[in-house]
Amino acid sequence: MVSTARRNTGVDGVDGGVGLTALLVAAARAIETHRHDSLARDVYAEHFVRAAPACAAWPVRIEDVADGDANPLWGRFARYFGLRTRVLDDFLRHAVQAEGVRQVVLLGAGLDTRAFRLDWPRDCVCYEIDRHGVLAFKHEVLDGVSARPRAARVPIPIDLRDDWVGALLDAGFDTGAPSAWLAEGLLFYLPRAVETYLIDTIDGLSTGGSALAYEVKLERDLLAYRDSPLYTSTKHQIGIDLLDLFDGEPRPDSAGDLAGRGWSTTVHTPFDFTRRHGRGPLPEENDALAGNRWVFADKPRP
Ligand SMILES: C[S@@+](CC[C@H](N)C(=O)[O-])C[C@H]1O[C@@H](n2cnc3c(N)ncnc32)[C@H](O)[C@@H]1O
């Protein structure tokens, strides 16, 4: 299969490369959790940050940040992740509560703790796919705080360039039953052929009544906003060069592809949800979030 950019996968765990971005999201969720007006709560997030030497000096509360909400990374960008977490929590809640889905697949799950913190129906299964080193770190931390999953949780330590479909089927995924899929903060790290394969595969594994949510970036975002406060602060404050980690190839039109396969799709900017919830990031000049789109897709029942 096509390779993920080598720079992304040089480090298997959370100490560097794309794995470190999972800790960035965890730190943002910790900050969000401690806000008085939090959009989403994740009590495990700060434990990941505290356990990883790579981010020993990172904040877990906005009060720990000298310039507070004016800080582009720990203010606006962290709030963005908080909003994204809430919106995708709601997507999964809807899939299980209103649509009766009982199997959930988190692609590039990273330090997502939804299996531990959302109210799942008793018979729900949550599959988490990420690379071995990331999941090993996650388990070490969660075991350390005696976290108990609230759904049947099935971690699948595998690279999405390898035979993850075989691993998912071996783990018990049922292609005859509706499923909910999430690719949160993942696709822009993958080459276009891998994204195309992923979407094609999800379609093939999804029966009617299934749902998918994912995040993409419009192509022009990558270079047009290279000097934006979000990218430069993330690089200079914590050493993560997102533009170096993102795949630079032209992006496929996955939403259009899904629509062509009969899925019903809606595409939102994050700002749509900021307005809906009354808090979160709003557009600004030279905005690295300008090209972010959150896509929701439903496969009609026969
Ligand atoms: C920004 S993090 C997002 C994690 C999680 N979805 C969240 O929102 O908290 C990106 C995740 O994608 C995973 N990832 C990137 N490329 C991958 C690949 N080729 N195979 C499996 N996982 C991958 C990384 O290990 C990392 O955990």
UniProtKB/TrEMBL annotation:
Any one Gene Ontology molecular-function term assigned to this protein's record: methyltransferase activity
Record keywords: Methyltransferase, S-adenosyl-L-methionine, Transferase
UniProt keyword Methyltransferase present: yes
Gene Ontology terms describing biological process: methylation
Superkingdom of origin organism: Bacteria
Coiled-coil positions: none
UniProt EC number: 2.1.1.-
Family in the record: Belongs to the UPF0677 family.
Protein name: S-adenosyl-L-methionine-dependent methyltransferase
